[in-house]
Write a sequence for this structure.
């Protein structure tokens, strides 16, 4: 297992530098002089411009700037937005809110998706199975932002169950509906994956063996069927995190949540490129680390992965 | 009872014997293939036909939207006096805020969604399939380099990457740039699948046989390995068409996709948000059009997957 972790970490290194460099280069392709944009119609003295260029390392070659930036990232310093606020401070402010939203969303998609998927898979062809399949297809084909609008309209405007926008403190209870919206597509996918995989495993030889040696139904389902059925679900979770991040941008934008996604949403709306890029870069880093975690979890669930070459 | 021991048999000289006679294969029968088998399975399912009919209708609407409506989606046909009017005769879906006919806008909006989806899918599939096939077939350092390159792009979620790119190139906010951007971040998925399929099919006996017959490596790849590795790629292409269409709508909603003056479902849904209290129908129709389109491709992908997988066929 240790060897496996080490190998995965080594593989992450080139990907980490490649992906961050790619995003960094994209910032550089950004048209216009950022300093001119900073001052608008009244450009400062050339010496001041020089001073600022030097401060932000804009007078260095791109690759040096990238190395300086990535060096800062390792020290927890993600640079400064052109409005003067450190990116890390903006991130620190926004992160706890998004973390709460993500925890709720993961909880919903994990618990509801797996439980309903398990139930549907065990009773394949039943009313619940067909109903669950239909609803999940609907959720998959409708974009998250439409689901968000509908939820906001129904719960907030029509029935007055929730506030249409979340307050800036974003307590847990106000995040329930946004988290459901955020979780909806992934929930549907997890449900379908679990269902298909459970339905396949129910007839497997190891399940028949487990039943034949007298294990209770509860243990057969919980340990033998579920653990084996969760393998594709865990694989899905890795790529799904990317969807969740995009979903967070959309959901936090709709419900005006001041989290990471909401910050990106507002930055996109106002054309604040540097903030978009630095936040997306951080999201990509988190995505990579989370994928590493998922790979490790996968190895725990499925010993075959660990021992494969 | 006469013994048949003495019946005279005529045996042709071996060089005159057709191969068909030797191993008793009916030469007139059409050769079966994975694709033929899959199609035979697919055509027996009603879901296939529902999806195909829907897709044909969607494509026709995208090509000639004027066939189904006499109005323009924007400009002269819009009448601000009819802003947000409910449905009436000849205007089954009502009017939007600018007083344009919603039905007409949905018909004309089909094109942008479909162009983005199709171009992105074709590009991502082509790039992914070529790179994946080369990586899987030739292996070695080429495989390592290409696979790590794919990992880099794979590490950036497609829509996140597209947000950054579209933010950086505001002059490029059109369907083709958007499609190329989505493909740039979408190809590694296809490449991974193609590489895996090529890795397993290059070891098949028929490839060894054709190598033994003196077929060159490159020809082997094109004639035998690639055609036998395409099945999973076709499935992922069908499914990703749907996801690319959703991605376009999401980006347009965020304001970094197609420009607001474009007639597209994403733009219309985004506009509908502002007037959702008074006219929820403005949200419903473009969203429904989008959902039906995405669903047709997703379900077709499911059907193709089932048809190409003999195990799934046996289970049904």
């Amino acid at each position: 297992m240790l060897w496996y972790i080490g190998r995965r970490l080594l593989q992450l290194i080139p990907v980490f530098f490649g992906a961050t460099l790619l995003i960094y280069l994209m910032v550089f392709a950004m048209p216009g002089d950022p300093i001119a944009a900073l001052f608008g119609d009244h450009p400062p003295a050339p010496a001041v411009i020089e001073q600022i260029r030097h401060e932000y390392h804009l007078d260095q070659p791109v690759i040096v700037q990238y190395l300086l930036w990535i060096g800062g990232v390792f020290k927890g310093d993600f640079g400064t937005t052109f409005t003067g606020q450190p990116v890390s401070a903006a991130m620190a402010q926004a992160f706890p809110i998004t973390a709460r939203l993500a925890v709720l969303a993961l909880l919903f998609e994990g618990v509801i998706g797996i439980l309903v998927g398990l139930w549907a898979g065990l009773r394949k062809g039943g009313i619940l199975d067909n109903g669950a399949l239909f609803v999940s297809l609907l959720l998959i084909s409708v974009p998250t932002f439409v689901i968000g609008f509908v939820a906001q309209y129904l719960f907030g405007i029509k029935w007055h169950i929730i506030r249409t926008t979340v307050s800036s403190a974003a307590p847990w209870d106000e995040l329930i509906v946004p988290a459901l919206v955020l979780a909806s597509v992934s929930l549907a996918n997890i449900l379908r994956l679990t269902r298909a995989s459970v339905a396949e495993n129910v007839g497997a030889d190891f399940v028949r063996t487990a039943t034949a040696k007298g294990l209770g139904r509860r243990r057969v389902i919980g340990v033998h069927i579920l653990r084996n059925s969760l393998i594709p679900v865990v694989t899905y979770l890795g790529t799904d995190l990317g969807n969740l991040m995009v979903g967070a941008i959309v959901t936090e934008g709709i419900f005006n949540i001041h989290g990471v996604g909401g910050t990106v949403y507002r930055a996109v709306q106002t054309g604040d490129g540097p903030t978009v890029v630095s936040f997306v870069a951080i999201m990509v880093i988190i995505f990579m680390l989370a994928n590493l975690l998922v790979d490790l979890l996968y190895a725990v669930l499925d010993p075959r992965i660990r021992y494969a070459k | 009872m006469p013994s048949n021991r003495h019946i005279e048999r005529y045996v042709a000289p071996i060089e005159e014997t057709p191969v068909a006679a030797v191993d008793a294969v009916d030469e007139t029968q059409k050769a079966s293939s994975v694709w033929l088998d899959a199609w035979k399975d697919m055509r027996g399912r009603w879901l296939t036909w529902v999806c195909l009919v829907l897709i044909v209708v969607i494509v026709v609407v995208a090509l000639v939207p004027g066939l189904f409506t006499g109005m323009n989606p924007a400009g002269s046909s819009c009448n601000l006096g009819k802003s947000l009017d409910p449905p009436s005769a000849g205007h089954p879906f009502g009017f939007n805020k600018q007083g344009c006919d919603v039905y007409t806008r949905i018909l004309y909006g089909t094109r942008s969604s479909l162009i983005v989806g199709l171009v992105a899918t074709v590009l991502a599939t082509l790039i992914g399939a070529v790179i994946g096939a080369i990586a899987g077939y030739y292996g070695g350092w080429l495989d390592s380099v290409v696979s790590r390159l794919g990992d880099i792009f794979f590490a950036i979620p497609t829509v996140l990457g597209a947000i950054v790119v579209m933010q950086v190139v505001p002059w490029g906010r059109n369907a083709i740039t958007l499609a190329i951007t989505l493909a740039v971040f979408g190809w590694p998925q296809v490449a991974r699948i193609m590489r895996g399929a090529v890795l397993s099919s290059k070891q098949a006996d028929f490839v060894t046989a054709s190598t033994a017959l003196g077929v060159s490596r490159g020809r082997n790849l094109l004639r035998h390995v690639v055609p036998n590795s395409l099945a999973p790629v076709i499935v992922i292409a069908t499914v990703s068409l749907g996801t690319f269409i959703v991605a376009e709508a999401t980006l347009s909603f965020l304001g970094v996709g197609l420009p607001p003056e474009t007639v597209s479902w994403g733009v219309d849904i985004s506009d509908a948000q502002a007037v959702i209290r008074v006219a929820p129908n403005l949200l419903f129709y473009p969203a429904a059009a989008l959902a039906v389109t995405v669903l047709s491709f997703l379900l077709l992908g499911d059907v193709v997957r089932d048809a190409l997988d003999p195990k799934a066929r046996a289970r049904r």
Observations:
- The mean pLDDT of chain A is 81.
- Chain A is about 80% helix and 0% strand.
- Residues 217-254 of chain A form the longest helix (38 residues).
- Chain A touches chain B through 51 residues (CB under 8 Å).
